[in-house]
Amino acid sequence: MISVLPKDHQVLSPHILRRYINWLHFAGLVSIPTYYSEPWKTRCHSYYHICATWSLYVFAVSNTASVFVNGINDFGEFCMRLWESECVLLALIELVYVANNLTKFYKILALIEDLSQDHGQHPVVVRTQKIQNLFLNFSLISLYSLITGSKLLQALLPKDAKTLARTKRIYNLQNPQNTLILPLYFPGLDTSEIHTFISIHIWELFVDVWITLTVLITVTFFTFLAHDIKAYVDILVEFTSRIGEEHRNDVGQVVYYTNLLRNRYLVADNFQTPKSQNQPTTSGAETQDTDKNSAENQPITDPMIIMIKDFERDKDSYDYFYVKQIVLFQEKILEITDKTYTFYTTTLKIRVLGVITLLFLAVVVILYPTSDIPLLNRLQINGEALSMTLVFILFFYSGELIGECNLTLRTAVYCSGWYNCANRTRRAVWLFMLRNLSKNYFSIFALGRLEYDVMLRIFRGGYAFLNFVINQTKLKN
Fold first, then answer.
1. CA atoms within 13 A on the CB side of 351
2. What's the CA gap between 10 and 30, in Å, rounded?
3. Is residue 366 part of a domain?
4. What 3-state class would DSSP assign to 2?
5. 108 is a domain residue
6. Which of 276, 241, 269 is nearest to 255 (CA)?
7. How many CA atoms lie within 13 A of 61 on its CB side?
8. Cα–Cα distance between 318 and 2 in angstroms, integer?
9. Is 12 helix (H, G, I), strand (E, B) or coil?
């Protein structure tokens, strides 16, 4: 079968995450060896990449050292700073993992872009891409503004005598008014000295950009891939719901799909070359315009004519062929799903354990009776805990989104016209339903999966711990 791609499909549209990795490349957080054609540019960028990543490592190590060297003097301060340090370290682990496995990640993006080449104009895909772009741009701007704004507010806002005395006692600073929102530890260096304080603040303006980009790797990558998989499953659901029916376009012409994966079909009336339609059904204007331009396509080959005539004589032959194409489409989606699960097997386990620890730390910081954390810091940790909880829910929402794909396909095929087909096609449909009998969840550990039930059990455990701390507080008072 000869298939000619339309001109607008010759150039592959890059995935938004591929563009995001390019942003990471410009920021120096990752290095793409094949990005530049000139060797000297690649060499210069490798030096820039080393400087950027080591600056981020120095920041993370200095912040963690401050927790155990200075924050240990007060339990409430130690828990709060440990919370913030763990957030930075979790994001840093994700960055290192993605940077060292870019080839694997590019393979996942290539599979999605391959589907987008022929289904990219489908309303579901267009809507998903718009939401992803909006979410990513909003997250970048809001997160960077929040980080830099809170640091400036912490530096400029006057502090009362009790807060200054507490800060001086914990961090041994000569000028406790000049404190950083994320305290850093450098041996033999007083970070509150005015020149040092200003220099670190200027340095942190660049670090904040790297932290923002790094944190969004954790927030967006898995979520975006899950929504991409769901979008193409929704397209397959539309195809699946048409089993056993006569397929017609919007102008009433009988069509025969020859390749669902590539979205190719033949119009039975004119026997022209397969046209690429970017959705199972298009608007009438788009279909009429495609049919008007059908004469520009190459003439159909003899095997295609024979195949279409066979389909017209034997409807069951086409139904069976159509179900086989649905199975091949699902194979492609399952390949993307399996590669996504494989890529995130390690990082999601670390991520879930880290978030559980962070939630418990937040409860201790907020309610522990012996801590004298200032109100501003309590509000800060409350906001951070709320944000982390939303991200935690987002992980499980994405896992549930992928896990329910099989159920959606099974429901679609059951509600289709499979009962109008012959026995051979019915047997193929039954096998397809058996194949989608169980949900395809991402297993985090041997006893846990990325589903709502596990998330609720974790929240119940957190709520029980919250009640325990509240009861201990009441008993001591």
1. 26
2. 29
3. yes
4. coil
5. yes
6. 269
7. 8
8. 19
9. coil
Whether 337 shows a pLDDT value over 90: the answer reads yes
* Residue 340 amino acid letter: T
Q: Are 76 and 365 a contacting pair, CB within 8 Å? A: yes
Residue 37 lies in a domain: yes
- The two structure tokens encoding residue 472: 């201990």
Question: Which residue range(s) make up the domain with 156?
Answer: 7-245+323-476
Length of the chain in residues, anyone?
477
* Residue 15 DSSP one-character state: P
Q: Global pTM?
A: 0.83
DSSP for 343-380, please give it: HTHHHHHHHHHHHHHHHHHHHHHHH-TT----HHHHHH
Q: Tell me which of 157-166, 269-278, 448-457 is least confident.
A: 269-278
* E strands, 188-326, in order: 255-259, 264-267, 275-276
List CB contacts of 186: < 8 A, sequence separation 6 or more: 62
Q: Is 449 exposed, middle or buried (0-12, 13-18, 19+ CB in 10 A)?
A: middle
β-partners of residue 267 are 255
Measured in degrees and rounded to the nearest 5, phi and psi for residue 264 equal -100, 140
Report in angstroms the alpha-carbon separations of 195 from 61, 175, 199, 205: 22, 12, 6, 16
Looking at the 3D structure of the chain, how many domains does it have? 1
**pLDDT band with cut points at 50, 70 and 90 for residue 357:** confident
Question: Between helices 423-435 and 315-343, what is the axis angle to 10°?
Answer: 10
The token duo for 323 is: 């179900």
Q: How far apart are CA 15 and CA 74, in angstroms?
A: 47
What is the model's pLDDT at position 296?
Answer: 36
- Nearest-angstrom CA–CA distance, 216 and 208: 12
Residue 325 scores a pLDDT above 80:
yes
Query: Is 401 domain-assigned?
Result: yes
Rounded (to 5) percent helix, strand, coil in the chain: 70, 5, 25
For helices 123-156 and 194-240, give the axis angle rounded to 10 degrees: 160
Neighbours of 435 (CB within 10 A): 14
Strands 443-445 and 264-267: unpaired
Which DSSP letter does residue 4 get?
A: -
What 3-state DSSP class applies to 418? helix
